Amino acid sequence: MHEPGMPVMITIDGQEYPIRFSLRTLKTLQKDHGISLMRGGAADLIDPEKLAIVLYHGLHEANPQITEDWVLDHVDTASLLGMIPHLGAAISGRRSSDFPNVQTPGGSGTGLTPGQSDDTTSILVNGRSGV
Q1: Does the structure show a pLDDT above 60 at 1?
Q2: Which H or E run includes 73?
Q3: 97-128 per-residue burial string, b: 16 or more CB within 10 A, e: under 16
Q4: Are 46 and 1 in contact (CB under 8 A)?
Q5: Using CA atoms, how far apart are residues 109 and 28, in angstroms rounded to an integer?
Q6: How far apart are CA 85 and CA 100, in angstroms?
Q7: Angle (CA) 10 20 69, round 5°
Q8: What does the alpha-carbon distance between residue 101 and residue 97 come to, in Å, rounded to a whole number?
Q9: Average model confidence (pLDDT) for the chain?
Q10: Where are the domains of the chain?
Q11: Longest Cα pair distance anywhere in the chain, in angstroms?
Q12: Contacts by residues 65-74 (CB-CB < 8 Å, ≥ 24 positions apart)
């Protein structure tokens, strides 16, 4: 469970790394890169270049050996899927479990559990629907 103010652990290449966004890190991201995670800047995380910058700055504080090039070379889409809820927790200070609709590896991609959902089945559907 994530403790506020403590780093969150993310997995890259099968190894766990602490990631944290201190006020200094947030200031650097905003001042040097125009990325404000405090003002809904999470949309910037769709851009691979900005995502690499955010990951680098969040990782670098506790892992000074990590470079931006290292992040570009070692983070791939498979590792991103597993780290998204943890990254959200590190940015927001909330627990990873507070992000229930984030897909995890092996999930359906919808944020829902696999299979039929009673909430999405219309009562108007019958055997003659679509005829």
Answers
A1: no
A2: helix 68-74
A3: eebeebeeeeeeeeeeeeeeeeeeeeeeeeee
A4: no
A5: 33
A6: 8
A7: 70
A8: 10
A9: 75
A10: 8-99
A11: 64
A12: 66/17, 74/12, 74/13
